Amino acid sequence: MSIIQLTKRQEEISQIVQEHQPITGEKIAEYLKVTRAALRSDLVVLTMIGLLDAKPKVGYFYVGIDDQKNEYNHFKDMKVSDIMGIPLTAHQTESVYDVIVKIFMEDAGCAFILDEEDYFCGVVSRKDLLKASIGGGDLSKIPIGMIMTRTPNITTVLEEELVLEAAETLVERQVDSLPVVRYAENGKSKVVGKLSKTIITKLFLEIKE
């Protein structure tokens, strides 16, 4: 299969852009009678596969399937494992202070938390750490497990998942990064990587070039 299967709304967006290009995301949303936020994931997908092009302060243009670059045929089959980054991890018994140091030393947006058997059990963001700092207490004595968001209340992606599908998940969940996991026979998962908006953006720019 050389062409990705579009949803009904993605087909409608493509038609609107063809008829009114250049057109802003806000105008597309008006035609479809939805919010701009509701279209975000569709516009990301259509732009990443090369069907649409976008220029800042101008709007979206229709490129068309026939004009897509050859690189797309490779990109559409790319898996998360092909582009995932190295995850920043910490154990749930480590102190909040130690995790703060790790995050800022690595300039990471979050840390994925592991249990005593190195299975994935939670995530902590910079916002979580800020709240803990404001709350007072000795951060060197508070285990990170006390303030983390625990599984299964965390969205993850699998390493064999397609990049396009994972990118949609990133946008829909409105997060900066997601843990890439591999499930063990006991149903628990191991963190094997991370997928971030930065990684997706860099890939997108490579394809555009």
Topology:
Layout: H1 8-20, H2 25-32, H3 36-48, E1 52-55, E2 59-62, H4 71-75, H5 80-83, E3 89-91, H6 96-106, E4 110-114, E5 120-125, H7 126-134, E6 149-150, E7 157-158, H8 163-173, E8 177-183, E9 189-196, H9 197-208
Parallel strand pairs: 3-4, 7-8
Antiparallel strand pairs: 1-2, 4-5, 5-6, 8-9
Helix pairs in contact: 2-3, 3-8
Total domains: 2
The largest sheet, given as strand count, sense and whether it forms a barrel, is: 4 strands, mixed
Instruction: Specify the CATH class of the largest domain.
Output: Alpha Beta
Q: List unreliable stretches of 5+ residues.
A: none
How many angstroms does the end-to-end distance come to? 24 Å
Q: What's the order of the H and E elements?
A: HHHEEHHEHEEHEEHEEH
InterPro entries: CBS_dom, CBS_dom_sf, Diverse_CBS-Domain, HTH_11, UCP026546_HTH-CBS, WH-like_DNA-bd_sf, WH_DNA-bd_sf
Protein name: Transcriptional regulator
Keywords: CBS domain
Domain CBS: 83-139, 148-209
